[in-house]
Amino acid sequence: MDLPPPAGNTWLGLTQQPLPVDAASAWVVLPGCGAIVVFSGTARDHSDGRPDVSVLAYEAYEEQVVPRLGAIADQMRIRWPDLGRVALLHRTGPVEIGESSVVVAVSSPHRPAAFDAARFGIDMLKATVPIWKAETWRDGSSWGLEAQHISEVGQH
Q1: Can you name the residues that pair with 51 across neighbouring β-strands?
Q2: Which domains does the chain have, with CATH numbers?
Q3: Is residue 18 a contact partner of residue 24, using CB atoms and an 8 Å limit?
Q4: What is the chain's alpha carbon radius of gyration, rounded to the nearest angstrom?
Q5: 83-132: per-residue pLDDT in tens?
Q6: Model's pTM, two decimal places?
Q7: Rounded Cα distance, 120 and 21, in Å
C-alpha cells in the first residue's frame, strides 16, 4: 500500500495511487468510538456546465499538502476533543471516473462530533490545501475553474 496507516491516531497523505478508502474506513474504528463517518469524494462524469467529463487530474503544491492536512487535523481535535482517529488523504495525477480523489474519515464516541468533524475536514481541505483539478469534457478542458484563494486553517 502506497499510504500505509500510521501507528498513531492521525493518517495524512498525498499519493498518485488509488486511495485506500476501505482501509481508511476500517482503520478509524476504535473500541471507544461508536460513530464512524467516511467521506469519499469520487470523480464524476460531469460538472456545472460541463457534460461528459472524461478526464480528471489533480496537481498539488506537494511540500505544503501534508503540513496543511496536519493543521486541519489539529483544528478538528481542538474543536471535537473526543475524536478517536482522523484520516485525511488526497490523490494527485489522473483519477478515473468513479475513483476516489479525496477521503476524510473520522471516529468519535458519538455521531454529532463525527459528522461535524468530517464535514469540517473536507470543507477545510478544499479551502486551505493547495490542490488543483483539471477537467476534460466534451467541449473543452481547463485547470481549476472552481479555483479559490487558498487560505489558512485559522482563518475559518
Answers
A1: none
A2: 19-139 (3.90.1170.40)
A3: no
A4: 16
A5: 999 999 999 999 999 999 999 999 999 999 999 999 999 999 999 999 99
A6: 0.90
A7: 19
